[in-house]
Write the structure tokens for this entry.
Amino acid sequence: MRRPLLRPKRIGPGSLVGVAALSGTVRPEELRAGVSALESFGYRVRLASNVLSREEVLGLAGDDDARLEGYLALVEDPAVEAILFARGGYGVTRLLGRLPEELLRETAKLHCGFSDLTALSAFLRERSGLFTIQGPMVAVDLATPLDPLTAAWFPAILEGRAPLRLEVPSADVLVPGRAEGPLVGGNLSILAALAGTPWEYDYDGAILFFEEVGEEAYRVDRMLGTLLSSGRLDGLAGIIAGSMTRVTFGGVEDPDRVRTLLLDRLAPLGVPVAADLPFGHAAPNVPLPVGARASWDGATRTLVLEEEFLS
């Protein structure tokens, strides 16, 4: 039987927030802008030691040791109440086998990030038993003013005062119906890369959410094919797709063909499917609580959070 997920503590004005860098490098001016945004919310900010580092092979924010040490210093610091991330890109999967799952469960810090951080969210849910938040990152989303919809949810979701209902009248209902289950997912390429590893999500009974950016459509098709042919998606309750940013056919964007691809791949599962929800790499990027029970109603085009995920 799955053990209940731990609810991290909500934060508020005056809280000390750590900014980790487990993936790619950042521009200093964008990091400064993102930190200023956090401070404008009333938070104090502590940066990981490697946040401005760069290693020369993959262009990551330091080598594996530096990125891991910078992150774990924030985890182990009792004054740090939540951990956000400078940016995504690539790098987290290199570290999963070295993460201390019991320490992460014992400290139960609130984590918020997306894109490459999908891998960490999966690890924290499946290995450490924690709720996390897929949401904005410091030197990317927070480096410029948030759009009104995202701003309505962030940082409110970190403080336990976000709306419980997300109405999306523009959602494209590919397969009608209502679904209820825990929200699991993130960036599609990371989900496919985790298939068959000890850190992948348990999708049984879940509402899968995914988004993607900067991929050729045939690669998106292959990612979906990996998850489908492995049987990982057979027990889903439903699927919601966010932005499919710069998904191209021979370098040319064609949203209608992307829709056809998704319908062809996902409709045979026989569960409700919707696309064009407001999360992912293109604004809006509404934060979602990973692991929290939610419901999707295709008739009303509404996502409702059904479970408390912070203490």
